[in-house]
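Re: [ENG-882] Designed sequences occasionally contain unexpected residues at chain ends

Forwarding the minimal case from QA. Structure tokens:
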């Protein structure tokens, strides 16, 4: 019988909100990093818990993959910072998969093919 592998997951990041947490989870998983989101359900108890650090979704990664995960998260943070500056200049819709500016009225990203249309049907 195979012995299960004991993995130790450690907190690496606290996301601003659940969509950001899942975006980071997807990027990490695509890079082969084992990741979990802790505190997803806390987003629904706002009012009973203070909004902010206490209720922010936590990104947990396998202890052995911290360095790789940190590189990815640092890149996301720097891209979000520069993207926020651009977004504040003019309101644009960006692709949730790759960040590309999407054409007005077109739900499909011209760069990667991701679409908001599936989310509307759900």
């Amino acid at each position: 019988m195979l012995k299960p592998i004991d993995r130790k997951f450690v907190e690496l990041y606290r996301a601003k909100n659940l969509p950001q947490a899942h975006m980071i989870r997807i990027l990490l998983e695509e890079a082969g990093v084992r990741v979990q989101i802790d505190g997803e359900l806390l987003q629904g108890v706002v009012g009973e818990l203070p909004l902010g650090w206490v209720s922010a979704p936590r990104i947990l990664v396998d202890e052995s993959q911290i360095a790789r995960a940190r590189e990815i998260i640092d890149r996301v943070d720097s891209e979000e910072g520069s993207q926020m500056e651009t977004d504040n200049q003019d309101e644009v819709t960006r692709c949730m998969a790759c960040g590309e500016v999407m054409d007005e009225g077109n739900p499909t990203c011209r760069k990667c093919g991701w679409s908001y249309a599936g989310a509307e049907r759900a």
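QA comment: On inspection the terminal residues look reasonable. The mean pLDDT is 78. Proposing we downgrade this to a documentation issue.
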